[in-house]
Amino acid sequence: MSILQKIADIEAEMARTQKNKATSGHLGLLKAKLAKLRRELIEPKGGGGGAGEGFDVAKTGDARIGFVGFPSVGKSTLLSNLAGVYSEVAAYEFTTLTTVPGVIRYKGAKIQLLDLPGIIEGAKDGKGRGKQHKRIIERELEGFGIRLNKEPPNIQFKKKDKGGLNLTSLVQQSELDTDLVKTILNEYKIHNADITLRYDATTEDLIDVIEGNRVYIPCIYLLNKIDQISIEELDIIYKIPHTVPISAHHKWNFDDLLEKMWDYLKLVRIYTKPKGQLPDYTSPVVLKEGKSSVEDFCNKLHRSIIREFKIALVWGSSVKHCPQRVGKEHILNDEDVVQIIKKV
Description:
Layout: H1 3-16, H2 24-42, E1 63-67, H3 75-83, E2 100-106, E3 109-115, H4 134-143, E4 146-148, E5 155-159, E6 165-169, H5 178-187, E7 193-197, H6 203-211, E8 215-217, E9 221-223, H7 231-237, E10 243-245, H8 254-265, E11 267-272, E12 280-288, H9 294-301, E13 309-315, E14 324-326, E15 336-342
Parallel strand pairs: 1-3, 4-8, 6-7, 9-10, 11-15
Antiparallel strand pairs: 2-3, 5-7, 11-12, 13-14, 13-15
């Protein structure tokens, strides 16, 4: 039996099974089996045979954004109008068959835009059919291990050689208990582990942590073709979380879109200041929030700088005095100005 058939059988059995306390163990086992089969589908065992045709594009700039969606919803038009890149645009499906990259400059940062081929329901299972729907796209990406607008589960999981299962719950659990956790771990042939549940976790959360290959990505939903709806409908759309209504064709609401993209990318711009000169505000060094220490800044400039680093002088919101002498561990804020002083 093929992997696709096994996946279909498990999904059918899950749909048939009533969800209650008595069936939670059985459903947990099915979900674990499903996660393993989907991983096999994406990463075949054995390594034999070449990889399928992918959409790999050389990374340029400070960040990259992918346009994912159904065919003929305006992704190519959006890329053309945002970045001035010509991606074949036509009023029928599947005009973009390979990834088309473009680059925009926004607030001093270079952001790479990728027009990805149209996603269709069943793509993660190697087949294509589907209706246009936000939930379908989410389900497709979840099948590939991509989690949208979610934080990694706050679950501590550590395999060990002996000692059995040690399960600690810091808050009361509505779904996971010792028996269900053991059932899921047995499917992965894990019999000895320390697990700490720091919040009310689900079966899917635990499986994601055990699989360890999930990717957590911020996502903005673009609702295109707002030129075809009323002002009242537009007011309702604006209240949907993580959403920006636009018209790719008429270039409407691009300012809101670019601002929201900037917020979700969480980039930090740092300006350099050579000794005795004014800061260079034209080309900032762009870092990611969470990786914006003085050491990260030095490494982005050149790997050799940190070896000669003595102190840094910083002007901006991350310091109390301007300038302030700081070490390499100091965390920089957006639009700080930095001057590096090297060892003599």
